[in-house]
Here is the input.
Amino acid sequence: MGIAVVLSLFAGRLLQLQGLDSKVFQAKAAEYRVHKEELPARRGSITDVNGNELAVTVEAREILADPSMVPAGQREQVAALLAPYLGVPKEDIAAKLALAKTRYTRLARDVSIGVAKTVLELKIGGKKIPGLFAAPQYQRLYPGNDLAGGVVGFVGDEGGGLAGIEQTYDKLLGGKDGSQTIEKGAAGQRIPMTRTTREEPVAGKGVRLTIDRDVQWAAAQAIARQVKESGARSGSVIVMDVRTGQVVAMANAPEVNLNKWESLPPADLGNRAVSEIFEPGSTNKVITAAAALEAGAVRPETVFEVKDKYQCADRLLSDAHPHAPEHLTFTGIMAESSNVGTLMAAEKVGDQALYNMLKSFGFGARTGGGFYGEEAGLLPKRETWSGSQRCTIAFGQGVSVTALQMASVYQTIANGGVRITPQIVAGTVDGHDRFVPAPPGKRTRVITARTATDISRMLEAAVNADGSTGSLAAIKGYRVAGKTGTAMRYDENCQGYCGYTATFVGFTPADAPRLVALAVVQAPKNGHFGGEIAAPVFKEVMTFALKTRKIPPTGTTAPSVRLSTDG
Here is the structure.
């Protein structure tokens, strides 16, 4: 009787397992067999204007492990064996393998295909390391290391853009990941002839920049050298195409090494040319000149009696060097970069007209070109100007700009008074290598063509005339127009103005402008005048750019101008 009862219980349990609970156990078995894998999309390349790669994606592997399959007695040995191949400390590997209840852990990523194959063939005691797998992934590489680092940006460990073009165009570059579902056995091998589902990844598109790799390299070399030689904190160089507003080069020093970005301090990870604001100093005088000329208050030949000091409200403002009273034309005031002469012209215009002109040239607003990390600078509302600020703003103190904003001001003058929104992206490239150009930059007339021409001639005198401040920017055979800037620099460390910003910005050929370039050096210790520190950088970079882009001299001669009526 007892045996019959036991047999009936077994029969009932067998019926339950085979019938009632079979689907439950099948589902649980499927959970262990069926694995969903992500199929990463290939990230699009970032190239210069000629298709030279600045950021590229290559196929790689990530090494994974199932710690539960690695015997406890072998974990230290396995970690020591893998460490030199994966470039990961053996202690880190051992710690991950010690998580015995974990079925999945990543030991390393961005492993080359060859190294991954070698790792999977490694043996301990004559047998391959159990629980070790490789999964396909893509690795982001930057062939130029720090070339245009601040512009290009970088990606994080998970492949998403974290800065620069990589972040701004992350969705377009990244494409769309796919996935597949497969069945695996207990040892991790794929079970043949089992069902599988697959959604193919969609590769990202490429982004083509307006930057010319060769000019970018020359700009980076020049600014890095000057920052080092002058003992400066940092520096930036921008080269723009006058007729299109496209950025030909945008270099910083120090620059971001994109292949080692994780080891750099946060302060060195951005693009200083668009994110660092500074008081422009005398480069800003062209805006005061534009306001005065547009108002009809002065002409280039208008004569002023210029002393070396000027009382403005509660401040006594002065020129850079003491001098006896001079009878300077407005052109002479620009050529000698006289603060006092500029203030006298500004008095003829008025605060509101000057403020409106600063706004028209783009002060206090981002340029609109979509540059990652771009700052708007600082333009105080006219109603808040103090008695002395209404004077200092006229010669570039009391307002703050970025290097890109100031380069855009001179592009506007060089382009006959028409501002073009700066551009850094030339267009995109799809999976079939079809190039889709970006829309041209917005064109806005800021000043009349006549005013632009007058200022251009004045800026030529600022480079070529005797006693001019920009003589070190002259380029043999070319007509160069430009302006120096030397401004006190606010420093957070000393909580005050205890350093300088040295700037030079200009364009050439002056009578048929093609390129504009700006060089700015922050807090130099060996010298501080823009004409001494920044002008030579302008000359070096602009000379290289003219040759690279095959821009010949116009062959014309600059018209003679009168700087003074004295003598």
About this structure: Residues 2-20 form the longest helix (19 residues). The radius of gyration is 33 Å. The mean pLDDT is 89. The chain is about 30% helix and 25% strand.
